[in-house]
Amino acid sequence: MMIQSRCKFKLKRIRNALNRIIYSCLTYSTLIIGLFLISHRNVSAFEPDFVFPLENVTVAQGRDAVFTCVVNNLGGYRVSGSGSETGTPARVRISFVAWIKADAKAILAIHEHVITNNGRLSVTHNDYNTWTLNIRNVKMEDRGQYMCQVNTDPMKMQTAFLEVVIPPDIIYEETSGDMMVPEGGSAKLVCKSRGFPKPKITWKREDGREIIARNGPHGKTKSLNVEGEVLSLTKITRSEMGAYLCIASNGVPPSVSKRMKLQVHFHPLIQVPNQLVGAPLLTDVTLICNVEASPKAINYWQRENGEMIITNDRYLMTETENSMYAVQMTLVVRKLQKSDMGGYKCISKNSIGDAEGTIRLYEMELSKKKTNRYNNYDDISGANDEDNEAIRSEDQNDDSLFGTNGRLYKGLQGGDTNLINKASTCHVVILISISSTSFSFIISKILSNVL
Ligand SMILES: *[C@@H]1O[C@H](CO)[C@@H](O)[C@H](O)[C@H]1NC(C)=O
């Protein structure tokens, strides 16, 4: 049984080999006959020669590659004697182009016949002097040295290199995703890629800010781009929060990138620019709190008695995002009433904790200020009665309060103060102009009387 099956196997192999030999014989004989016919059609006196060097080809895997070999005087040429002169008959040598994979020492094609068992190869001839070897859907194994050879004696050949490249790709399974770290903690962002040549990884921040490396060989360094598969961030601060991009590039377009968000968690923090805000009755006032929180916090306002403030026709609350973690809370109180004076709280709560800021709103007496301004300007005579002095010093107090503690001044809405200032200046100007008109009137009266 065993011997029989082995015999069968051997027979099958022999039959296959015979088939192959017969097939090649047929191919070669047709080839030779063909070449013979071609060569007799245009017998030349010159040896074939290359016109251009064979050029290196670089192609992305999956694309097509083409080698072009340009040979002049191909066909047949006379190799011995010089024809009728010496009387010896001229021998004609048939020449043809062969393509060889030099590193594998494999003949790929002779003339237009592909010999190798690779369906992706083909040879085309433009019927003149140009031979092209076409490799479709190039694979990594096609990379290497290719030779265009003409069978002169000695044979002539040229070689060129086929470089197969693979555009970069990111290996998502081995690459980091979005991350959350507490402030002060560390994060290791990893980006793995494939491609040929091996891609280079560059890290960038999406917002264009610098990446801070604190554990480098030179201590703390800042740079816009960091190279390497791993980006190590330590002692992370909130300003490092944001999207990071890893970009893989190897000179083969397109480059690819992956975006990963780094979220830094911390307790909310409230900063109040103006803790004491003075405003006249019936004006609108804006209270401001600056909040920093991550993850995002819920922010709201309360009166000091804990009463929640809700938006209605008297209160307008807005939130402006200044960065990924900074928000400005504003509360506009419209047409101030006596009952609006007092304490206000801005409160910010996130999953890590909460914070609050307080603002005290007090009534600023506008009417009193106005009158004392009139007094100051009107009283040019220099008659410093006590009352005036008192008002003036109060005024100064006010000013110094505003000056040294500019925050308080800012508490009053810019528009309103301007309005008040303009109004009073206007009055003064009118008064002065009135007095100057009356003065000139009096002068003219006097003059007319005199004349
Ligand atoms: C072709 O490629 C080979 C191998 O990469 C290199 O040594 C050679 O210098 C290249 N030739 C040209 C003309 O670029």
TrEMBL record:
PROSITE patterns: IG_LIKE (PS50835). It comes from the Eukaryota. The chain crosses the membrane at residues 21-38. It holds the Pfam family V-set. Its main location: membrane. SMART domains: IG, IGc2. It is found in: Cell membrane. GO terms for cellular component: neuron projection; plasma membrane. Residues 48-158, 168-257, 268-367 form the Ig-like domain. Keywords: Cell membrane, Disulfide bond, Glycoprotein, Immunoglobulin domain, Membrane, Repeat, Signal, Transmembrane, Transmembrane helix. Gene3D superfamilies: Immunoglobulins. Residues 377-399 are annotated as: Disordered. This is CLUMA_CG017255, isoform A. It comes from Clunio marinus.
